[in-house]
Amino acid sequence: MSGDGESVDWLGNESGSGEGAECTGLSVECHCHTHYQFYEAEEKLLLGLVALPIIAFGVCANLTSVKVFTHKLMRSSSINWYLAVLSCSDTFTLISAFFVLALPRVGEFFRHFGATQISYWTTPYMYALMVLAQTVSVYMTVLMSVHRFIGVCFPFKAQNVLSRGRVKMAIGAVLIGALLFNTTRFFEVRVVGTCFRYNINTTMPVLVPTALRLNATYRQLFFGWAYTIVMFVLPFVSLIIVNSMVIFAVHRSRRLHAGLSTGDDTTKKQELAKEISTSIMLVGIVVVFLACNTLAFVVNILENLEETSALYQSLVSYSNLLVIINASINILIYCLFSDKYRLLLKYYLCCYWSREGEMLLTAYQYHA
């Protein structure tokens, strides 16, 4: 999510709830956790009531996309392997964002603090899963763009460079790299027990940051440099450069397509039109990614500058909502640009078990 801002969100409800100078951010005694601190109304609206239906839609949409991209009609194209993994990682991002961001705010809004309790108990694991899945999504987007760049700008080398074995190795490397990069996230926060909160008349888990998370050197090296470079600078620069070249290549292909006369090979024209549509779809995914994550980049910079104003806190909420939206709406891009995706979506949603559905796929395979 937005740099380190997402963790400030949920840890904020645990800080400053006790009395006495002896209470610190690491205190586990119940006299330091006697009162529950409520979220701001804006947070409850954006990350609770607004985010909840978006997350529900996104999870269903991404699971559908996984089903579509793993169908035999789609598996023949290695670019769809990236999209299948991207859909999986977006699903995990949304599920974990539900537990970390949406559930406690929705529970508080409806005064159902059992939901907030569930969020607190699961946060140490779901927070780590959230940033891990988001890392995978970011670099699946980068890999997909590089793959398309090689395919359209170096078509004669693409078959050797983009072999199935190398694509699998690249995907595996991203998964392993994301896990290694985010390993410490599993040790940044912990539940140390339960305490009674008098202002809500409820016993709540005590969620506190670990010593690792509060370590100044760790925060400077990981959040100040590593996270900023790995999650923002490298992917943003790579995506902008690579996709700019892809756009130029698509523009040249459009001119070539327009220059083909009606007497030219129809199959060649169809293949060229299909390649152009695929390139535009992938560029569209990147444009949406950059649009939804730019504010998160800004928030990360402000956090490194130790900004703590009310405006900054508001920007954190909006940036997290945009990341949730980004993880939910790729299905709209797929439906807009991919005939095959629309066909399979119709097959699964409308006539999965019918003879009509089988005939639909058979007819497509025959004409493709």
From TrEMBL:
Annotated TM spans: 45-69, 81-104, 124-146, 167-187, 222-250, 278-298, 318-337
Q: Name one Pfam family in it.
A: 7tm_1
Which residue intervals define the domain G-protein coupled receptors family 1 profile in the entry?
Answer: 61-334
Q: Which GO terms describe its molecular function?
A: G protein-coupled receptor activity
Listed A to Z, the keywords are:
Membrane, Transmembrane, Transmembrane helix
Top-level taxon in the UniProt lineage: Eukaryota
- Location (main, coarse): membrane
Has the keyword Membrane been applied to this entry?
A: yes
Entry's localization field: Membrane
This entry carries the following GO cellular component terms, namely: membrane
What protein am I looking at?
Answer: G-protein coupled receptors family 1 profile domain-containing protein
